UniProtKB/TrEMBL annotation:
<dbReference type="GO" id="GO:0006351">
    <property type="term" value="P:DNA-templated transcription"/>
</dbReference>
<feature type="domain" description="HTH lysR-type">
    <location>
        <begin position="5"/>
        <end position="62"/>
    </location>
</feature>
<dbReference type="InterPro" id="IPR036390">
    <property type="entry name" value="WH_DNA-bd_sf"/>
</dbReference>
<dbReference type="InterPro" id="IPR000847">
    <property type="entry name" value="LysR_HTH_N"/>
</dbReference>
<protein>
    <submittedName>
        <fullName>Transcriptional regulator, LysR family</fullName>
    </submittedName>
</protein>
<dbReference type="GO" id="GO:0003700">
    <property type="term" value="F:DNA-binding transcription factor activity"/>
</dbReference>
<keyword id="KW-0804">Transcription</keyword>
<comment type="similarity">
    <text>Belongs to the LysR transcriptional regulatory family.</text>
</comment>
<dbReference type="GO" id="GO:0043565">
    <property type="term" value="F:sequence-specific DNA binding"/>
</dbReference>
<keyword id="KW-0238">DNA-binding</keyword>
<dbReference type="InterPro" id="IPR036388">
    <property type="entry name" value="WH-like_DNA-bd_sf"/>
</dbReference>
<dbReference type="InterPro" id="IPR005119">
    <property type="entry name" value="LysR_subst-bd"/>
</dbReference>
<keyword id="KW-0805">Transcription regulation</keyword>
<dbReference type="InterPro" id="IPR058163">
    <property type="entry name" value="LysR-type_TF_proteobact-type"/>
</dbReference>
<dbReference type="Pfam" id="PF00126">
    <property type="entry name" value="HTH_1"/>
</dbReference>
<dbReference type="Pfam" id="PF03466">
    <property type="entry name" value="LysR_substrate"/>
</dbReference>
């Protein structure tokens, strides 16, 4: 007996159970009443079990029939969900898209993708909340959230975006009259610009092949915003420890140079978090695809 052979019979059986009528089930399914009766009988033969007791007045579901119906019900719901997904896939995206993202990463990396998305989907409006506080999908009424973390997100439904490597950056003029930096051990003689924390010193991690070093450095200037640290580094205040996406443009135009690029430092990962993997609306699905094209290496852009 093939499992697939029973699918048609399961659909008919479930409808008979729900209507307790061969006639109503036949009308709903667009079948002849005789076809419904034959299919139920054939299903019972294949299963080797009596599912329905039929009298002249009513239909009664047997105990095994009721248990079997619950399996049928779950399968049919999955089929409906699959059909709904395909319909949504082909629908034109409409409505409001609510996104939450960390302030700096949102401005630098998410907003450009949002701009392209808005330009290509004229029936979608976007509400972007730039915040560094933790977000709650229910309380904040959002569709998507961007998270940056070392480890996997606590949230159940997510998709990975880009890795965020950190590095040391300084203005070329800052380095002219100061000790050369050829290895991590040279850093202790320099001034640093770091994210604000409880201490003025921080241990910076370095890895290259089998070598690992932790170098303690001291900061004269600290801030809670990476753009402020970037601007301070450009102004020759010291060496800034920054995410690569923050420093990229300044490096390209020659305002900053990266120190010790052969050494690997901290690496964080970015993710897009979703309410659920099921029933993703067209606007949410298309924006996730836009994010992946923009941020995930190797993602097709066509």
């Amino acid at each position: 007996m093939s499992d697939f052979e029973n699918l048609h019979g399961m659909i008919i059986f479930a409808k008979v159970v729900e209507t307790l009528s061969y006639t109503e089930a036949a009308k709903t399914l667009g079948l002849a009443k005789s076809s419904v009766s034959k299919e139920i009988s054939a299903l019972e033969v294949r299963l080797g079990a009596k599912l329905l007791q039929r009298t002249t007045r009513r239909i009664q579901v047997t105990e095994v029939g009721m248990t079997y119906y619950h399996y049928c019900y779950r399968i049919l719901n999955e089929v409906k969900s699959a059909d709904l997904f395909i319909r949504q896939f082909h629908e034109e995206p409409t409505g409001s898209l609510r996104v939450a993202a960390p302030v700096t990463f949102g401005c630098q990396c998410i907003v450009p993708a949002l701009n392209r998305f808005v330009a290509g989907n004229i029936h979608v409006s976007v509400d972007l909340d730039l915040t560094d506080r933790p977000v709650n999908f229910a309380d904040d009424h959002i569709d998507l959230a961007i998270a940056i973390t070392r480890d996997l997100p606590d949230h159940r439904h997510y998709r990975p975006l880009m890795d965020i490597a950190w590095g040391l950056y300084a203005a070329p003029d800052y380095l002219l009259n100061r000790p050369a930096v050829t290895s991590p051990d040279d850093l202790a003689r320099h001034e640093f610009i770091l994210f604000r924390g409880p201490a003025h010193t921080i241990s910076l991690p370095f890895r290259k092949e089998k070598q690992k070093k932790d170098i303690e450095v001291r900061s004269r200037f600290r801030a809670n915003n990476s753009i402020a640290l970037l601007n301070s580094a450009v102004a020759q205040t010291g060496i800034a420890y920054l995410p690569n996406y923050i420093a990229r443009e300044a490096v390209e135009v020659g305002k900053l140079v990266q120190l010790l690029p052969d050494w690997e430092m901290d690496i964080y990962k970015s993710y897009v978090l979703m309410k659920s993997d099921s029933f993703i609306s067209p606007r949410v699905r298309l924006f996730i695809e836009e994010l992946q094209r923009a941020l995930v290496p190797g993602t097709a852009t066509g």
